[in-house]
Design goal:
This protein is an alpha+beta fold. The chain folds into 2 domains: 159 residues, Regulatory protein AraC (Jelly Rolls), CATH 2.60.120; 97 residues, Homeodomain-like (Arc Repressor Mutant, subunit A, Orthogonal Bundle), CATH 1.10.10. Helices cover 45% and strands 17% of the residues. It has a 5-stranded antiparallel sheet with strand order 3-9-4-7-10, covered by helices on one side. It is globular.
Length: 300
């Protein structure tokens, strides 16, 4: 199965598509497709861009991504360095509830499942404590053949339904997925530029030039299609990087070093932006993470 920007080629003899990949890095272009996508990150880390929002991802995470929602699993920069020891692995399930499976989801017994998809139209991240259980159901679909694929798929959907009250959407319900293929490609290039250069001092003029637009036109365009200003998006990318550095164990106490590495040129500005996005100071973030880790070790 080859995934192209905004297009998925689906075999005629399958209604549920599954794949297991091992690559140097994840597919690096913003794209969407008519199919819902469930992805288990077996190995790798980076940033998931989903609609107009962003989420850090790491090994063990599972995401349900809504049909037609533009998305991109952006691997961290180190995955593009050519290091043969760096690679990603993931299992994904794709299904079109309005296409090949429309008759199945129209059955009376599937009323709850259909309502579940409608309610969670943009998808969500599976809670960490339940991710292994959902991943196991995904592999059951991947390894099955014939009618067992459908049986195991229904078990997977049922498992997701049970999470209904414990999840947060990947992006706002107000976000519209109606982005043309050309616009998706253009957005992909812009987002790639930002995520590849965020730790440098890039300006609005820099990113506007990369998009072949005037700064004023770029601001209008970017706000319309992402819901973010350039500065707010850049700050979220930088804070996402900082969060990973703060809990990595590598010089975690050197908050100023983390700030400068993420692209901030002022520790005061870094602390202010960090608190506005995360809701707590960098020091409190480290302490809370360490406390949770200790509790997990004691309880295991």
């Amino acid at each position: 199965m080859k995934v192209l920007p905004f297009t998925m080629l689906v075999p005629d003899d399958k209604s549920v598509i599954s794949e297991h990949i091992e690559l140097p890095y994840f597919y690096q272009y913003l794209h969407r497709h008519d199919e819902w996508q469930i992805t288990y990150i077996e190995k790798g880390e980076g940033t998931l861009i989903a609609g107009n929002d962003m989420h850090a991802f790491r090994s063990g995470d599972v995401f349900l991504i809504g049909a037609k929602l533009p998305h991109l699993f952006k691997s961290n920069p180190e995955y593009f360095s050519g290091d043969e020891h760096k690679s990603v692995k993931a299992c994904s399930i794709y299904f079109n509830a309005s296409g090949a499976l429309a008759a199945l989801f129209a059955l009376p017994e599937m009323k709850m499942a259909s309502a579940f998809l409608t309610k969670n139209k943009h998808g969500f991240k599976v809670p960490e404590k339940l991710a292994k259980e959902i991943a196991a159901k995904m592999f059951s679909v991947y390894r099955a053949s014939g009618v067992d694929v459908l049986f195991n798929f229904l078990k997977l959907v049922n498992g997701l339904q049970e999470l209904n009250e414990n999840v947060e959407p990947l992006c706002s319900d107000l976000y519209s997925s109606n982005v043309s293929e050309n616009e998706g490609m253009r957005l992909s290039k812009i987002i790639n530029f930002i995520t590849e250069n965020y730790n440098n001092q890039i300006s609005l003029e820099d990113v506007a030039n990369a998009a072949f637009m005037t700064p004023q036109a770029f601001c209008r365009y970017f706000k319309k299609h992402t819901g973010h200003t350039f500065v707010s998006f850049l700050n979220e990318v930088r804070i996402n990087d900082a969060c990973k550095s703060l809990i990595s164990g590598e010089k975690a106490d050197c908050i100023s070093g983390v700030a400068y590495k993420a692209g901030f040129n002022s520790i005061t500005n870094f602390n202010r932006v960090f608190k506005s996005i995360i809701g707590q100071s960098p020091r409190a973030y480290i302490d809370n993470y360490n406390n949770v880790s200790r509790v997990s070790l004691v309880g295991s």
